[in-house]
């Protein structure tokens, strides 16, 4: 019976020795997770800002193109009128 009790105590002792306090490792893991999530949030915000800047540039380019096209249309209309006058005068 003493052998069984000694064996049981030895097994329990080994089991307890194997149990370690993982709090420092868990704290480091939590800190790494927080830093990773913060970096992801920062990157997402920077990407959104970059995308907003690109969208603004595209909108300004489109507006500039529209104004240029309108100017070309006015110029073409003026040339058409001048050509029409020349044609009438030539007849």
Q: What gyration radius follows from the Cα positions, in whole Å?
A: 40 Å
Our measurement of the CA-to-CA distance between the termini, rounded to an integer number of angstroms, reads 133 Å
- Mean of residue pLDDT? 82
The portion of residues assigned to helices is over 70%
Uncertain regions spanning at least 5 consecutive residues: none
Q: Which term fits the overall shape?
A: rod-shaped
Tally the helices: 2
Helix-strand string: HH
| Strand segment tally | 0
Largest sheet: none
Explain this structure to me?
With 91 residues, this protein is an all-alpha fold. The chain has 2 helices and no strands. It starts with a helix and ends with a helix. The model has no long low-confidence stretch (mean pLDDT 82).
Entry keywords:
91 residues; mainly alpha; rod-shaped; 2 helices
Question: What is this structure's SSE topology?
Answer:
Layout: H1 2-18, H2 23-90
Gist of the model:
By secondary structure, the chain is an all-alpha fold. About 95% of the residues lie in helices and about 0% in strands.
């Amino acid at each position: 019976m003493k052998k069984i009790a000694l064996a049981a105590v030895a097994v329990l002792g080994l089991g307890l020795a194997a149990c370690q306090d993982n709090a420092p490792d868990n704290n480091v893991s939590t800190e790494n997770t927080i830093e990773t999530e913060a970096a992801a949030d920062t990157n997402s915000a920077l990407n959104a800002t970059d995308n907003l800047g690109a969208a603004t540039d595209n909108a300004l380019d489109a507006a500039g193109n529209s104004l240029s096209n309108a100017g070309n249309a006015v110029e073409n209309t003026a040339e058409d009128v001048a050509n029409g006058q020349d044609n009438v005068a030539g007849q």
